[in-house]
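So, can you check these tokens?
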Amino acid sequence: QVQLVESGGGLVQPGGSLRLSCVVSGRSFTFITMAWYRQAPGKQRERVITITWGGTATYYIDSVKGRFTISRDNARNTVYLQMNSLKPEDTAVYYCNSDPWNYLGAWGQGTQVTVSS
């Protein structure tokens, strides 16, 4: 069965940086478009940024433009999210999954990102 394991979250001050990682196991990573999602307290989960199999970022929400970068290592079945210039409104649990999410059909536990002074 598919497993997604996110890591790299933590507490960071505004303006700081974090790098999240997500390892996918249980099925082939081949040709799967992947994305990072996030869910802030009291809000619905939202798709943040997407990357194709070939490494092209094809979607991102306006609020992370110029600050977040998605990348992937297909040999390691791993997706990364580099987050710079973090803001308090970036506080959320971050998840990776396929895009659309129900292609892989499972969610990991997520990793908490808290931006606060």
The radius of gyration is 13 Å. The chain has a mean pLDDT of 95.
